[in-house]
TrEMBL record:
Residues 4-72 form the HTH gntR-type domain. The keyword Translocase does not apply. The keyword DNA-binding applies. This is GntR family transcriptional regulator. It comes from the Bacteria. Keywords: DNA-binding, Transcription, Transcription regulation. Transmembrane segments: none annotated. It comes from Streptomyces ardesiacus.
Length: 252
């Protein structure tokens, strides 16, 4: 039987110490040099072991401070459903309220951004056509649980009260309700989820380890005329959230 890689052996050792309450949630771990010396391995082996446990939610890294035993954290249920769209208010806040969390978000909007090739293809426009791009960081009880970058064709909303998703009287109302305010009926959305590893930027924003598993959802809303009116890249950390799809059943 092949010998277990050293970093997996160290990960098991660290996990065992936590299980035996040598270290409690919130405790800071000794330095990598100290752990390596105790276990007879180099610091790089300890680093790989800690990165594995961080990706699994057992440990958490804090920039400039060290590595800590993660506090117990219940996974947030994120429901993907046509019923998410509310007549008033934010779909995300409604989702979080349903699971007893306080939902909020931070955003940054840039108007008149040329559409990259992939985004243009998803929106059915020419590459380089202007879009309104909004980057979101969604929070549950103040902790990041989801990222999203949204793109809307600028010519669709230019000159209207909804041109800025987070500005004006319809700020934060969601795509369906904002489009309805300018006479556009959104009939359906298409979502394509796939697992991948987090980028360095995503990991930093979500408070997870680089290369930790995330679910990347490519979502596009369509009008009842078949035109794409918005597309977004949604990133959800697997260790912190579970994604559930509700599928409505139509009855004759």
């Amino acid at each position: 039987m092949p010998e277990q890689p050293p970093y997996l052996r160290i990960a098991d050792e660290l996990r065992q110490r936590i299980a035996e309450h040598v270290w409690e949630p919130g405790d800071r771990l000794p330095s990598r040099a100290q752990i390596g010396q105790e276990c007879g391995v180099g610091e790089n082996v300890v680093r790989r072991a800690q990165e594995l446990l961080i990706s699994q939610g057992v440990l958490e890294g804090r920039a400039g401070s060290g590595t800590y035993v993660a506090e117990p954290r219940q996974r947030v249920r994120v429901v993907r459903s046509s019923a998410r769209e509310q007549p008033e208010g934010s779909p995300f806040r409604a989702d979080m309220k349903a699971v007893g969390r306080q939902g909020d978000w931070e955003s940054r909007t840039d108007a008149k951004v040329p559409a990259p090739a992939e985004i243009a293809a998803r929106l059915g426009i020419a590459e380089g056509e202007l879009c309104v791009r909004t980057a979101y960081e969604f929070l549950a009880d103040g902790r990041p649980v989801q990222l999203s970058t949204s793109w809307e064709p600028y010519d669709l909303t230019a000159g209207s009260l909804v041109v800025l998703p987070e500005g004006g009287p319809h700020a934060g109302a969601g795509v369906v309700n904002r489009m309805a305010a300018i006479g556009i009926t959104v009939s359906h959305a298409v979502e394509q989820p796939e697992p991948r590893q987090a980028t360095a930027e995503e990991a930093s924003l979500l408070g997870i380890q680089k290369a930790a598993l995330v679910t990347h959802i490519r979502r596009t809303y369509y009008s009842d005329q078949g035109r794409p009116v918005e597309t977004a890249d949604i990133v959800v950390p697997a260790a912190h959230c579970e994604i559930v799809y509700e599928i409505p059943i139509s009855r004759a």
